[in-house]
Specification:
The protein has 428 residues and is α+β, with helices and mostly antiparallel strands. It folds into four domains: 153 residues, Beta Polymerase, domain 2, CATH 3.30.460; 52 residues, Hydrophobic Seed Protein (Orthogonal Bundle); 155 residues, Orthogonal Bundle (cca-adding enzyme, domain 2), CATH 1.10.3090.10; 33 residues, no CATH class. Helix 2 packs across helix 4, helix 15 packs across helix 17 and helix 16 packs across helix 18. Strands 3-4-5-2-1-8-9 form a seven-stranded mixed beta sheet.
Amino acid sequence: MSDYMYLLESLVNQEQNRLLTEVQSAAVEAGIAIYLTGGAMRDMLGGFPISDLDFTFEDHAPAKLAKLVSKRLPDAVIEEHPVSKTAEIRLPGGATGSLRMAHIETPSKGGASKVKAAHLLDDLRHRDFTVNAIAISLAKASRGLIRDPMNGQSDLHNREIRLCYPAAFLDEPLRLLRAIRLRHRLSFQIEERTERYFNSAVESGAAGSLTTADWRRELEMISEENQPSEILRELDARHLLPVPADTLNLEGLSKFEKLRRTLPGRGSYWPLFLQVLVEDTKPKDRAKFASAFGLKPAELEEAKKLKPQVTKLATALKAPGVRRPSHIYNTIFPAPPVVILYLLYDSDQRLIQDRLRNYLEKYLPEAGEITDAQVEATGAKPGTAQFTRAKASLIAAKLNEPPPPPPLPPTGPMGAPMGPSIPARISR
């Protein structure tokens, strides 16, 4: 196994590793040589968290491989797209990937792109950015072999976003938005010539061909980034945002995204993201926003359905009987992450804020230190009610454990506390 394969397998999480393993096994069964390509390679080589696992192969439509993968991963949702020769995979825990026949897409007069099968290297050369045009072989005979026809590794080293070919923005204007989103995610700069191609495409009105479905899909992706407010500000500054930025609650969104980063994992907060974004926006501007991004007006109100749960949690946190750390932990732990985030964002009560932050910063990490092995040591068997109670008891004991006493002050020769030292007097 190459160092690259070792690096890949050490960076994916447990569910991604399951996806990676089963797709490779299905490919062996089908007799298909596959490559891991795109964002996974960019993230692996650049030292970023791996988000999606995109598999590319030559000469085969994804249907056969998708069928074999579905047998190995019965809990996966697989959505095939015959026209684009791809199939999207999503596992229950959030791991995602795609099966993609190597191909080249060329724009046609009717608006829909023509898809033509291609060799892997041609496929890579016609992608959006060089950092996304890297592949690693997962086939047994060439396992770990890197293919990098556009020298994307050099651009990763230089922290630059560079187009794979000059007409890439014009062929697919959605890449204009993707470039800004990727720039903020990676903290890269757009390479000088690519910047010129970017500005030229904007001036030509290329973004005018983006549909409301394009904007909706892109907004959903922006909502999952760490700094969505900054991405929207830059899109506005570059004259790409379809609504004026000053009609959106970008200040509130900045607060929201900072709070969201305090929650563990990567849950879906899309309804709450929308509510924050249009909070206090005039009805006329809300309607324009919904229309521009292909949203139904009711979607902007969806998060308000969570309000009863938020109110219930707030009331429970203020109850007289909730005093000890274990009480606070047991009150918050059952709540969905989106409800916790909503209360963090919405409440201005100091007691609630302090208890939520203590839960996230202290109690939740400390509770996570209790292992199943420790619970089994009490005699409880996994999967039983006794096991659940024993684990809750161990967590409570750990959370309620009094802090260690402060260190005693230093003492003198006779055991008396030493006072503050007095500097020696210097003779002049």
